[in-house]
Design brief:
Belongs to the parvin family. The protein has 357 residues and is mainly alpha-helical. 50% of the residues lie in helices and 7% in strands. The protein has 15 helices and 3 strands. It has a 3-stranded antiparallel sheet with strand order 1-2-3. A hairpin with a 2-residue loop joins strand 2 and strand 3. Helix 6 runs parallel beside helix 7 and helix 14 runs parallel beside helix 15. The longest helix has 41 residues.
């Protein structure tokens, strides 16, 4: 009986074996690459965890902060300080002041970080305050051009302020990187040096996070920065009036002064059958102040120039602003108070019994 020899594997079967072997090798390669990537990612994550600074809650570190050069540092405002009411009030005071100063240039500042970093607003403000024209390009779009303008502006500012003992808390890089603390330091110094007719909020301080790179590792420190002190210290170079002295040294006599002011005001407002009993509320909308100025200067104020019965906050601010204009038209200094925050003594050094009998 003959036995038929077993046929060798068919070409198709051999091809399947070859494909399986190839896929196996390919699969193994992919698995090894995946594991290698996971190891690299884990290594990188561990490296970042070691190098990454401990940041306050709510603060994110930016890409540029991780790419600092050796021994370089970056300062960031703590998010909680950004929400501080006194800090917000300080920002508003500075913005309102800048907009008032640059009104003729039709410049409107809404955000200090976005509007001041390129040097354009700072240039115009310094030129207006100092009366000095700077030799810089009017409009610069490139980063190099903006920094060159900032360099010229800050050199002029520092040259003016440093002899008077001002600490220079700003730099070209800080301003151009939109460091809000440095911008506020600069603007507050200018406001105080040039005796701006505003009252900066007292005792404003913020927390900043300082990120430094040492030996390739990012290190952080939380530092407190005091932006303003007391009104007396900030206005130490200014001419202070009797009312400021009273507030500082004899606050218990405020009621006596208020009574005297009410008597003075009623002496004139009674001519219109009006009477004031409380300064805090009755002068807040500006109406009585406008009427008082008309009586004191002996003219009639057209009713279409102000709101006789203001209903909104904006209408009240308009009235107080208009009253301030009447004061300045009468030869008085611009009041230190802001229309938005004018209180019962907004006219203490302007409209007084000393001048008007």
């Amino acid at each position: 009986m003959s036995v038929t020899p077993t046929a060798s594997a068919s070409p198709q079967h051999a091809k399947m074996k070859k494909d399986e072997s190839f896929l196996g090798r390919l699969g193994g390669t992919l698995v090894r690459k995946k594991k290698s990537k996971e190891v690299n990612d884990l290594h990188e994550e561990g490296k970042n965890a070691i190098n990454a600074p401990m940041l306050p809650p709510g603060m994110d570190i930016h890409r540029e902060d991780t790419q600092l050069e050796e021994n370089a540092e970056r300062v960031m405002l703590d998010p909680t300080s950004r929400e501080n009411l006194k800090f917000k009030d300080l920002l508003k005071v500075l913005i309102d002041w800048i907009n008032t100063e640059l009104e003729e240039d039709r410049i409107i500042v809404k955000d200090l970080e976005e509007d001041c970093y390129d040097g354009q607003v700072l240039q115009k403000l310094f030129e207006k305050l100092s009366g000095r024209k700077l030799n810089v390009a009017e409009v610069t779009q490139s980063e190099i051009g903006q920094k060159q303008k900032l360099q010229t502006v800050l050199e002029a500012v520092n040259e003016l302020l440093r002899p008077h003992g001002w600490s220079i808390e700003w730099s070209v890089d800080a301003i151009h990187s939109k460091n809000l603390v440095a911008i506020v330091y600069l603007l507050a110094a200018l406001a105080m040096h040039f005796q701006a007719p505003v009252r900066l909020p007292e005792h404003v301080s913020v927390q900043v996070v300082v990120v430094k790179k040492r030996d390739g590792i990012l290190q952080t420190a939380v530092v407190a920065k005091q932006l303003t002190s007391t009104t007396e210290m900030m206005m130490g170079r200014f001419e202070r009036d009797a009312f400021d002295t009273l507030l500082d040294h004899a606050p218990d006599k405020l009621n006596v002064v208020k009574t005297s002011l009410i008597t003075f005001v009623n002496k004139h407002l009674n001519k219109l059958n009006l009477e004031v009993t409380e300064l805090e509320s009755q002068f807040a909308d500006g109406v009585y102040l406008i009427l008082l100025m008309g009586l004191l200067e002996d003219y009639f104020v057209p009713l279409h120039n102000f709101f006789l019965t203001p209903e909104s906050f904006e209408q009240k601010v308009h009235n107080v602003s208009f009253a301030f204009e009447l004061m300045q038209d009468g030869g008085l200094k611009k009041p230190k108070a802001r229309p938005e925050a004018a209180g019962p003594f907004l006219f203490h050094s302007q409209v007084s019994p000393v001048r008007y009998k």
